[in-house]
């Protein structure tokens, strides 16, 4: 066995860092998109339930799966981030252990509440169930913004020495609030887009109206990103901001492409095309996930750069990983198609 396997995080990596970073960006984008659907959809059951609660009923059918898929899609970025930034992520999780370890219980209760809500979504008063679930999911997002911010601010870890109870927060970081609001607005936008996507396929008379309401949420929340995104950008440390204005070619390109794709998504939504808007949104999220990775590199430089870590490319596990991904993806497509065929037959 290679001795690299026994090393602590931050000592060496089992493959080229660019490959691991690319996988981290792609899997994180998938995680956050589905989480946006789960949180945004749960909030829209409250803010836009529909005249006869049809939107809420349509969402309720889909939300438990969205939470389950979002949580499953959290595992790959957790593992890839651990490979490259393990010493930062683990320490951030340890100093904020109380919220971090609560995360799993918080998400499980939110998930269970959405199941209880599912058959009752059309009934008066059921909104209390989705409201409780929304509060817990919002709590989960705050826990993750906290740990992700702590993971790039090692100077805040010293809080542990004055209060070693696992309750260190990054609330004093100027990016905390705009970072979270940026995620919240994205969730409302993607939740609205999701409503537009599934409503346009419905056959009832109100489907067109529901699809337009979903698009209106997408447009409104995406326009709100202009001041929120600007606030978030300006709250970043100067050396990090400069990476998006020419200092880092990939970061600058991803930033400009992300903005362009978001504008294209808005344009498609204005023209009543939810499918196209979803396509551009997914690409914009991949660009923004790249921007987030470049920002992390900027925060950690010059003390840490994963590109300088010694590597021992373990091709066997990598091939096994790719092969398993392909098999699982094929099995998932087959399972969804089989489910749809059975559902159509009644
Ligand atoms: C319970 C299982 C979950 C796990 C293990 C998990 C894991 C992670 C990890 C490891 C990251 C950071 C990836 C990186 O550093 O590149 C992340 C980011 C994030 N997750 Fe999840 N997640 C989970 C569920 C959720 C839920 C339920 C929400 C919200 C409702 C959520 C919202 C977020 C947000 C907003 C970020 C980005 C934080 C930021 O950069 O400011 N996650 N998650």
Describe the structure.
Keywords: Membrane, Transmembrane, Transmembrane helix. The chain crosses the membrane at residues 23-51, 63-85, 97-116, 128-152, 180-203, 215-234, 246-270, 277-295, 315-339. The chain is mainly α. The chain has one domain: Up-down Bundle (Formate dehydrogenase/DMSO reductase fold). It is 76% helix and 0% strand. It is built from twelve helices and no strands. It has helices spanning 17-47, 54-72, 75-95, 97-117, 127-150, 159-162, 176-199, 207-235, 238-247, 249-270, 274-300, 315-345. The radius of gyration is 21 Å and the shape is globular. The termini are far apart. Protoporphyrin IX containing FE binds next to helix 1, helix 3, helix 4, helix 5 and helix 7.
Provide the CATH top-level class: Mainly Alpha
Helix count?
A: 12
Order of helices and strands: HHHHHHHHHHHH
Helix content: over 70%
For the biggest sheet, the summary is: none
Portion of residues in beta strands equals under 5%
Please state the average pLDDT score.
95
Based on Cα principal axes, name the global outline. Answer: globular
Q: Specify Rg, calculated over alpha carbons.
A: 21 Å
The count of domains is: 1
What is the CATH topology classification name?
Answer: Formate dehydrogenase/DMSO reductase fold
- The count of DSSP E runs of length 2 or more, i.e. the number of strands, is 0
Poorly predicted runs are none
The kinds of small molecule bound in this structure are:
protoporphyrin IX containing FE
What is the CATH architecture term? Up-down Bundle
Distance separating the two termini:
53 Å
* Overall SS class: mainly alpha
